[in-house]
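Fold sample X.
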Amino acid sequence: MDRELHAMLDELQRDPYPHYARARAAEGLTYVPELDSWLVVRDADVREVLRRPEDFSSANALRSDVMPAPAALAVLAGGFGGRPVVVTADGALHQALRAPIVRGLSPARVGAVLPYAAERAAALLDRFEKDGRVELMAAYAGKLPGDVIGRLVGFDPADVPALVQGGHRLEELLFRPLTEAEQIAAAEDVVAMSHCVDAFVRARRADPQEDLVTDLITSVAGPGDAELTLDQRHELVTHLQNLFIAGHLTTTALIGTTVLHLLRHPRQWELLCARPDRIPAAIEEAARYDTALQGFRRVTTRAVTLAGTELPAGSPVLLAFGGANRDGSRHPDPDDFDITRTAARHLSFGLGVHACPGSTLAREQLRITLELLTRRMPGLRLADDQRIVMRPTLIHRSPETLDLVW
């Protein structure tokens, strides 16, 4: 992708909502060259695509915006991964990959990790509560979700920071323009992450537990402690990296955008402090208003017609959950942030066979966060001396930094 086109993509990703509004107002679908996709932004159209996985394949769901240089690809070849994951699989393969993840994120297992999540959240707040100022993304939002998903999966806490870093570096490598030297450095971090996960998988195979990882291993290699084949190791590393990255990056983004918009609307923040029973409604409104996962790609498996637009087989489309969540036909006054609104079901966590299995865990971490902040730091406000800049990505939309004072 050339520099000019990438600059246009950056502009679109940092504030996609005007583009969504124009696409909703247009007849049929809108093709967006920067995304190399047909943009699907109306609530009804996004739902239709999600309900027709046989016609709209997920094979390109995580297609990169940038192709790494050959030197970076050579480094990546020394790691583990590169196999299909649940978000890029269809049909029977998708069901097989999804089943152990759904079991691993069952209400019982999520409930079991919540006391740790509450304890960890409080400990993070303890570190800066007396300071009167904090950059929330680095000090809190970027730490809690990785710790929690790491605990649920069973990773050694000492490994979690490097795994979180590896997830960020993989996103940079696939979605940001980097120099060749920067790409190689990012690839080295990704390979280090994959080797760490591989060592964890082999250790768990030798010593099975009642946990998500053992379920995943059994689904791939069957029961027992027989040594994993190289191909099985690649497959398991791919699954776990995808699960871990999705489990921390999206929730980190959701915490950041939720706090940002509550504090941009001080009266709603004050209402939430006075009425903490409204926290669940605030979570849903924040997820709708500025969706952390703005969209996923799909590709047509046959010739179809969507919103009056004829799409040949192989046509790329981008399902803009963030655009659908601002559709006034479902959400009155959609551009208003209002935690008192009568909520209609949004699409922030998907729908149908690809609905996010980790949505409960994400919501619970946000609930814990808002309960702590409203109780312990009701005077919280945005620092005056900052310019809020959103990260240029549709995968994990959030502020790059968020300076708060109290």
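Fold sample Y, listed below.
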Amino acid sequence: MSAVVQRLERVPAPPGPFRPGFWRSPIRGPWLTSVFGLVLLVGIPVLFVTGALSYAAYNPGLGPLNDQTPGKGPLGFYLFDWPAGPTWLYRVTQGVHVTLGVVLVPVVLAKLWSVIPKLFEWPPARGAAHALERLSLLMLVGGAVFEFATGILNIQLHYVFPGSFYTLHFYGAWVFIAAFAVHVALRLGRMLRALNSRSLLRELRTGLADTRPEPPDAEGLVAVAPAPPTIARRGALALVGAGSLVLFAVTAGQSLGGRLRPTALLAPHNRDPQEGPNGFQINKTAASVGVSAAMVGPDWRLELHGAGPVQAFTREQLLAMGRHSARLPIACVEGWSTEDQLWSGLRLADLAALAGLPDAASVLVESVQPPGPYASVVLRGNQIREPRSLLALHVNGADLSLDHGYPARVIVPANPGVNNTKWVRRLTFRT
């Protein structure tokens, strides 16, 4: 290894970005990089944990229908039985995940800009430790770009990567967080020393005329031949902070709701609000998944499978049964959520008892929707027994619209939106 390094050191650096004098920004240096790094040191773990919770919310342990990431092996060590409450649980965890991910984009870009000379170091490696650090840096940068790109494209409904978003995002997250952990272990001490080298308040009071390069550093971040400053460090921090605030303002309303909902300009599901009891957000319309009015017309029946003979009910027969109500939101993986809507219908617990399995461990919910992702889902026993878990027939005092799942849909507290199956045709309760 040392012989190879020595030979590389004797080879002149290629032209362009590999030459030390190529990078000339006078504000780039360990301190500014460490400020951005500190923000990410707090934000990235929160992003990872909320993403991991989002995956757990799908109850992948119940089988392939729920598990969009097969073969995860030991990476699923943390999975647990997702609770059916509080009602806002998934709305909060996924809202934080998506909103924080969007808000951190300017910080990630600024951090990448601040360390870009490191990506073009020459020679590429100066020993085993340096090679490990370089590898972790490349995995960190690649993982960050991949995770943020796939996540943002998914929430904007423009996912273009080949393969399942869930699978790629899940494995990408583990690669990214592993590289992040190695990078933190290698860099934390240097980051803290860099932060202590300058006063944040003093930098915030320093204007363009008094902006000077940081002292030369062994990391190669400080420019060898700095150009005259065109922005102060406080200006760079303000620019990044303002970018994050703007992104928060045009994203967070889709999760927070209330008066902030109209400001969520980057949220596709907040556009063109409809009037009436069914006028709240829809993930996928009936037409987009191949459900027609004829498929849920007079011949529609709800099949109930359990311990006894199969039972089939018309919608009129279901309406004649004792109905219950619950105020619940819908929250989706894209980060959007509705306000609480008033749902009414039959308790899943009562249907389980009607099927002869009052202590059912799970229920397979099948839709008239043609086969595809989330056309069927399995719900856990604790979700069945939750009193607010319903086979909903009405919302806000009116029949469900076709796009909202007419003639019947599942609605379960704290459940990801796609697991609240619409156009239900069969419930199979199991021990």
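Sample Y note: The chain has two domains: 2-263, 286-430.
Also: The CA atoms of residues 75 and 174 lie 8 Å apart.
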